[in-house]
Amino acid sequence: MGDTAEWSWCSLVLSSIGSITVVYYLLRWSWQCWQGFKAYVLSEIWQTDLRIYGQWAVVTGATSGIGRAYAEELAKRGLNIVLISRSEDKLRSVSKEIESQYKRQTRVIQSDFTEGHSIYSAIAQQLEGLEIGILVNNVGMNYTGVLANFLDVPDPHQRITQVINCNTLSVTQMSRLVLPAMLERGKGLIINISSEAASQPQPMLSLYSATKIFVTYFSRCLHAEYRSKGITVQCVVPFVVSTNMTHNVPVSPLVKSAASFARDALNTVGYTTYTSGCLTHALQHFALSIVFPGWLRLSSYCVQRMAKFANSIEPQLREMMAEPKNKQD
Ligand SMILES: NC(=O)c1ccc[n+]([C@@H]2O[C@H](COP(=O)([O-])OP(=O)(O)OC[C@H]3O[C@@H](n4cnc5c(N)ncnc54)[C@H](OP(=O)(O)O)[C@@H]3O)[C@@H](O)[C@H]2O)c1
């Protein structure tokens, strides 16, 4: 009799825990689906008018890939564009194209973000007098061509500084430059491009994934600090986009073209401040988080397995990427 009572208590407790867990996940997934529906479906129909933030948008790394696509899409939506990159020739050609195609004004600033602190006073001078409503902190570089262990790149001493300057210092310093005037006007939008590579430690992409989680945390903190003052800081976390950085891997249901990625990602402004940027990338993120929940992906076991896996596919990847097809200028 005693045993039966104990057993029925046990089964009651276990079935209650089970039901609560099921209800918790159903509510959580329903909430995520609703948020996703707003950000990626409704946003196709009702888009935020980006001109409310100000007349000018600044885009770093604006001559190819995602940065160029953001610059073009912002111009299409009525903003004047400041393009910042290393190559004067490419800057002139993109600026000409935007002016003739979208009839917006442009300015170009030639700057190399790997150089560190020294470049920002010149950038500040060239931005003076412009009503900057939007900053897109897009510029970024990988530590290695494909995958590599930390010391297995030529001249790691220099490369480490370059990657940190380009991927993290640029985001903080550019934000520092534009924020004061945005605060004075009580409005502004800063878009920071992080990466899905930041969603967990990525062995053989160690410095890249570490700089990208910096971008994610910095964006979320900055948004919390300044949202009450009219500033939105959006963190964009893409999967694979076909650009020079990804050796122009062909566009597919999983891989977005830069133009379509930038269009979808800009649609999400006003709906979310942390986004995969587009529906297909959000679904990939969702599927990954179900198969490998956060606690599992962050576990040392999983990170060790990732390292083994990365090591095993590195030779094939290197072979595939031996002749990078840099199609986009
Ligand atoms: N592609 C992807 O699948 C992917 C996925 C997740 C996140 N991301 C992130 O998205 C951002 C853009 O990536 P992307 O794939 O579009 O790269 P990309 O095609 O290599 O373009 C990089 C842009 O930045 C400029 N640039 C590079 N180094 C620079 C430097 N030191 N100083 C100034 N400008 C520099 C390049 O122009 P110049 O050569 O003329 O300077 C180019 O305009 C990066 O932050 C990247 O981490 C990309």
What can you see in these coordinates?
It is a single chain. The protein is of the alpha/beta class. 54% of the residues lie in helices and 12% in strands. The chain has helices at residues 2-45, 65-76, 88-102, 120-127, 156-185, 206-226, 258-267, 279-291, 294-297, 300-320, and strands spanning 56-60, 80-85, 106-110, 132-137, 188-193, 231-236, 241-242, 256-257, 274-275. It has a seven-stranded parallel β-sheet with strand order 3-2-1-4-5-6-9, sandwiched between helices. The longest helix is centred in the first third of the chain and has 44 residues, at 2-45. The termini are far apart. The mean pLDDT is 93. Bound molecules: NADP nicotinamide-adenine-dinucleotide phosphate (NAP). NADP nicotinamide-adenine-dinucleotide phosphate binds next to α2. NADP nicotinamide-adenine-dinucleotide phosphate (NAP) binds at residues 61-67, 85-87, 90, 111-114, 138-141, 166, 193, 195, 238, 240-241, 243-246. This is Very-long-chain 3-oxoacyl-CoA reductase-like. Pfam families: adh_short. It is found in: Endoplasmic reticulum.
